[in-house]
Design brief:
The chain has 466 residues and is an alpha+beta fold. It is built from 14 helices and 22 strands. A 6-stranded mixed sheet has the order 3-2-1-4-6-5, sandwiched between helices. The longest helix has 30 residues. The chain starts with a helix and ends in an 8-residue tail after the last strand.
């Protein structure tokens, strides 16, 4: 394709998809390499037709001794073309160490921050990036290699916020031919051939291998990305609808019904979980992939009624039918409560560490009472008693039952959460008499017309007088 035909095709495509609006101010990310230089010349060629105002921005990553030469090149180029240029230097290796990420990710973060700052300073409403069809193919293979869901097949979008990619439908060969025809110089970055970078291995090893099976592999993967992008746009709308129906927000945490999630089609559940995980991961500067969503899906389908899973930037908690996601933080639930016990020598008021109290008083058996009140046969049950925290292995003898039931099973049946169990107490006299506020034993049942010891539990948030 000749340079004039390429420019005409480029202009028609911009006009057809509205990627750049007439009279828009556009910032070009200019590395000095062939792709960004081709983008600079193409936008400059169509700027009279669209009445564009152009500016350029170059970030020195401080990763190569020759990076200063790149700065000189882009300064000279922009001065000759009369395009304003922003330049800045960031120590990307130091940033990678500080943020604990790889060099490629640190470079991406540095570029994004720099370009957004330059766009604000120059009042530009679009930031043009020089990614082409080959870059899109590399991105898809990169996503697949790291583990992605269907959303990952959308690859790079032509527009994402301020960032636009006008060259995604063009091959590297077309851009190089265009630069050769217009006799435009550009910088050759030797680090693009270094195989220690993942993208370079994909570019120089994997794509050529795929090309032996399909010479049009880049175009094929580009077409797949375009279709996947349309699918992903639909799912974003569907996910927003599901989130509005099913998700409850409480501060920085969100909660959903486990039963409601399991009723969803697996595709709906996957998208919703991925959306929620991504929200937390982005705040923590982490990334989530297919394996994280699959882990969460298995967690929800587990027969265990309670549990926790830790994923990048997020803590997933299940408490029976309630499923919650909250920012990753130290887990107080994992630690065991401090052992505590108190002797009850007779009637009176006995404070509990939680702030509530137990009140023991003599009386006659009364009907009713509720979960906060129990009565024991005073003639049969003598003091002292003990009130203490729940301990592993505790068992309760229930009325009409020959053996004793494990407290763990009883609490699971009552759907008492792990957090609530930490504040439970038991009243004992050799055996457990009462799981306070939950269930009494079948021992020392009151007899009609006989005296009783009445035990009243007054929690800390109760309006009752102790």
């Amino acid at each position: 394709m000749s340079s004039s035909r390429l420019v005409d095709n480029f202009l028609r495509q911009l006009q057809a998809d509205g990627l750049i609006r007439p009279q828009e101010r556009v910032l070009i990310a200019l590395s000095g390499g062939s792709d960004s230089v081709a983008l600079l010349y193409l936008l400059r060629a169509v700027s009279p037709s669209l009445q564009l105002t152009l500016a350029a921005a170059h970030l020195d990553h401080a990763m190569r001794p020759q990076s200063g030469d790149d700065v000189d090149f882009v300064r000279t180029l922009c001065a000759r073309l009369q395009i304003p240029l922003f330049c800045e230097r960031v120590d990307v290796p130091a940033l990678a160490a500080t943020e604990r990420v790889g060099l490629e990710e640190a470079g991406r973060l540095a570029r994004q921050t720099f370009l957004q700052k330059c766009a604000a300073q120059s009042a530009c409403t679009a930031i043009a990036l020089g990614h082409h069809r080959g870059d899109q193919a590399e991105t898809l293979l990169h996503h697949l290699g790291r583990g992605c869901g269907l959303h990952g097949l959308a690859g790079m979008r032509r527009r994402r916020g301020l960032f636009i990619r006008p060259l995604l439908s063009y091959s590297k060969a077309e851009l190089l031919a265009y630069l050769k025809e217009i006799k435009a110089e550009y910088v050759v970055d030797a680090s693009n051939d270094e195989l220690n970078f993942t993208r370079n291995r994909i570019r120089h090893q994997f794509l050529p291998l795929f090309a032996t099976l399909n010479p049009q592999i880049e175009a094929t993967l580009g077409g797949l990305a375009a279709v996947a992008a349309h699918e992903d746009d639909y799912w974003q709308e569907e996910t927003a609808r599901l989130a509005a129906l099913l998700v409850q927000k409480d501060g920085e945490s969100v909660s959903l019904s486990v039963a409601g999630l399991l009723l969803l089609h697996p595709a709906q559940r996957y998208r919703l979980l991925h959306f929620l995980l991504t929200c937390f991961a982005q705040k923590a500067k982490k990334e989530v992939g297919f394996r994280h969503v699959a882990t969460l899906d298995l967690f929800l389908a587990s027969p265990a009624p309670q549990g926790e899973v830790h994923l990048p930037g997020v803590r997933a908690i299940r408490r029976y039918d309630q499923f919650s996601l909250c920012p990753q933080a130290p887990l107080p639930v994992a630690s065991s409560p401090i052992p505590w016990s108190l002797e009850i020598s007779g009637p009176g008021v006995y404070p509990l560490p939680s702030g509530g109290v137990l009140r023991i008083e003599p009386g006659e058996s009364l009907p009713g009472g509720g979960e906060g009140v129990v009565e024991f046969d005073a003639a049969a049950l003598s003091f002292p008693w003990t009130v203490r925290r729940v301990e592993p292995g505790d068992r309760l003898r229930l009325a009409g039952m020959s053996g004793r039931k494990r407290l763990k099973e009883l609490l699971m049946e009552r759907k008492v959460t792990l957090e609530e169990r930490r504040s439970l107490y038991v009243l004992t006299k050799e055996e457990i008499l009462w799981v306070v506020g939950i269930r009494r034993s079948g021992l020392y049942l009151p007899r009609f017309g006989y005296g009783v010891w009445r035990v009243v539990y007054v929690p800390s948030n109760s309006s009752l007088t102790p």
